Amino acid sequence: MDNPKKITRSMDEEPGGYQEDSLVFNEAAATQENWFSAYKNSIRSAEELSKYLPLSDADKNVLKQVAKTYHMRIPLHYLSLIKDPLDRSDPIRKQCVPSCEEIKGEIHERIDPLDEEKTSPVPCLVHRYPDRALLIVTGRCFMYCRHCTRKRLWRNRTPEPTLKDIDLALSYVKDNRQIREVIVSGGDPLTLPTERLDYILSNIMSRTSVESIRIGTRAPVVIPQRIDESLCKVLSKYENLWINLQFNHAQEITPASIEACKKLQYCGIPLSNQSVLLKGVNDTPLAMKELCQKLQSIRIRPYYLYQCDPVVGAWHFRTSIWRGIEIMEKMRGYLGGMCIPTYVVDGIEGKGKIPIGPNYMLSVSPEGVTLRNYKNETFFYYNPKE
After folding, report:
1. Which tens digits make up the pLDDT trace of 23-32?
2. Which of 74, 100, 350, 363 is close enough to 115 for a disulfide, judged by CB 3.0 to 4.6 Å?
3. Catalytic site residue from 132, 140, 151, 294
């Protein structure tokens, strides 16, 4: 690594702040690929945002008030996807610009709706399912999505995981041989320097019996510059690596994001997408159809459509479950199966994912079942006895 420079920040600058060993940045690589400059030059205050979007004094006051609890960071690439700066209902704007709704509070909101902290046997590791575990390697993101399920990391100023924390988590994985898959998450793992990410991935493989690794990231969506040559060189070393993205609207699929995804695909990495159902963003059959068809056209598999979690500060994004079922109803049969994600509710209190969809089995008898198809045509289907 050439001339590493250690970057430090104050604890109140980002969720989790920076531990002294948490960010070693290769300046030469950043100059060449320019991703870190894009990250560093992201919009982080109301004053900066007002250079790009028309904001009244009242708007600025709201942004400042929200930012006291929930940070703001918007990469310029993502901000440029807003079609009309005057349109407050733009699906890009809704995901990245803070709203007064975030601090209103609602009786059903939870600081940790999935009880991740209660299912964390060691720091920075969540073990909810028998055969897989979630490794939280950072609390930082390229962009702080306003619907984020881990807003508690922002509000609580949770310290960044240290290498010691990660080593302890991997020791737990090693001692629990039923864990065959590790999901590397955050924050966004790709905010880490490439060298640090490589260290984590190599240790997962060398120190445990893990058979598969998943990375969850929004980098190709919000800051496609991050998918640079040095990152691809590292990721291509891991043959059992999968990447889950989060495109929530077709407007996010741009030439730059497509090129970033192609670079990952050229590394042999399968790409899947996990959207979140968001009120005013993608909560119509038309919006979801367009998104999923575009994803399929660039070889990204629509994997999950999540019901927005009841996390504090995101209640205004939540739709009814019936809306999600309606969207699934309008997709099944009208789109190919590869275009249709699984609609899931992530159960509160660590109950896990529950798939939800339209009911196609209308009645059951000893002889068989009455079913309906996507055209609402019903028929009896004989059920062979075992």
Report:
1. 443 434 333 4
2. 350
3. 132
